Amino acid sequence: MQKISKSFGGVPALIEASLEVMPAEIMALVGQNGAGKSTMIKILNGAYVRDEGSISFNGTPWTAASPQQAQRAGISTIFQEINLIGYRSVAENIFLGREPKRGFGLLDWAKMNAESAALLKRFDVKVDVREPLERFSTAIQQMVAIARAVSFDARLVIMDEPTSSLDEAEVAVLLRTIRQLKAEGVAVIFVSHKLDELYEVCDRVTIMRDGRTVQVSAMKDISKLHLVAAMLGRDLAEVKKRGATAFEESSGANIGGELLQARNIAVGHRVHDASLDIRKGEIVGLAGLLGSGRTETARAIFAADAKTSGDITFNGQPAAFKGPADAIKAGMGYCSEDRKAQGIVPGMSVAENLTLALMPALTRSGMLDEAKQREVVDRFIKEIGIKCAGPDQKIRELSGGNQQKVLLARWLCMNPKLLILDEPTRGIDVGAKAEIQMLIRRLASNGLGVLMISSELEEIVEGADRVFVLREGKTVAEFDHQNMTESKVMHAMAHGHDT
Prior knowledge:
Layout: E1 2-8, E2 11-17, E3 26-30, H1 37-44, E4 52-54, E5 56-57, E6 60-61, H2 67-73, E7 75-78, H3 90-94, H4 109-121, H5 138-151, E8 156-160, H6 168-183, E9 187-191, H7 195-201, E10 204-209, E11 212-218, H8 224-232, E12 258-267, E13 271-279, E14 283-287, H9 294-301, E15 309-314, E16 317-318, H10 324-330, E17 332-335, H11 339-342, H12 350-354, H13 359-362, E18 363-364, E19 367-368, H14 370-384, H15 400-412, E20 418-422, H16 430-445, E21 449-453, H17 457-463, E22 466-471, E23 474-480, H18 486-495
Parallel strand pairs: 3-9, 3-10, 7-8, 8-9, 14-21, 14-22, 17-20, 20-21
Antiparallel strand pairs: 1-2, 1-4, 5-6, 10-11, 12-13, 12-15, 15-16, 18-19, 22-23
């Protein structure tokens, strides 16, 4: 891909950007959200049409009219957010659009199921492929998406944050599969914000910033610090190591009285004895392995899912919420881990998404007070630093980091007392991640209670004032900031008690 340019509504997304991948090469593609990585990928696979530039694939000029055409030609793409059909079986999802047939045009179910099971076995995934996909965890669904992409006779596989929903063992399986693809002569473009993964499997790295390709290097020739500096556009001397995150140390001076107390919460089969409490102005971390019940506990507190037992007190009163509307009215906000499915409304504008929860307060006699809406939107775009062409830009056109900022602003404009953040920096680049981490600390310093779920231990250990650890649906340990270490938290996650 040479001198690729692309604009949306007059706003440049790519400016003469370039990307070169050799046969059987694993190429890392990195950059902040908004750097142009996703736009490059979507132009390559036919989802977008480039404005300028040239592409060649397998030695010949290349233009894909659609992702389906690209896939048939040997370019398979696995996106961060799973785009499969939940109510269809695992096997149907793997063979969607190319189902094997037998006599009279009937589907060959036996062949489809057998080949799907054999393919997943290659990834060490053993599930009943006849079951609907939605019955399985996000991690299993991601592995199915990977298996589907690899099942095509691909010459080039593009992986956009494929490990974001996987646990450590599943990540190891995926990285092993990537090496296997390389050994079979397949090239891979690997997009990830997890630098350790990139250094483990990638041959070279292409660094993008502000729509341009700024550096290409062999992985062995560039340090992590140099890589981050290039992504951020800073001199190396400006990049100061402040731990693994941008969370500032909390003095604890602004932490007030108890805001929320949850005791012996049970939710379905996943959570059976979860307890935690949060004080005003405090960041409380909720740690645990995949499937430990973190999200289910948070959703029960927000009344998005009904708890089967247990007691919740919020702001000094029993929290007998019938649903999220009651929780919002009482002063809670909730940012889901799945921005696409449970956060943004992609066809709506930045302004509409930002003020979605505030809409009743902005409406009189069925009429929207547009001036008041614009005042709120302009204020939060400025305060949080949302990068967009304007309030009327579609939110789907924003980078993941800026979409996350809009979702945070959606709740902040409601003046909440408690903000529940489920994986607030998932799939977000280094720069946007630092901005959101600093924002979370600033909000807590101003008296907001925060419940933060994160799969990144350094984010929990460095960012939280206290941490509760869940294991198999039960709270097994609590640590304050002074006595918290990654090893202690990991021990509790693994063994069900602190050291």
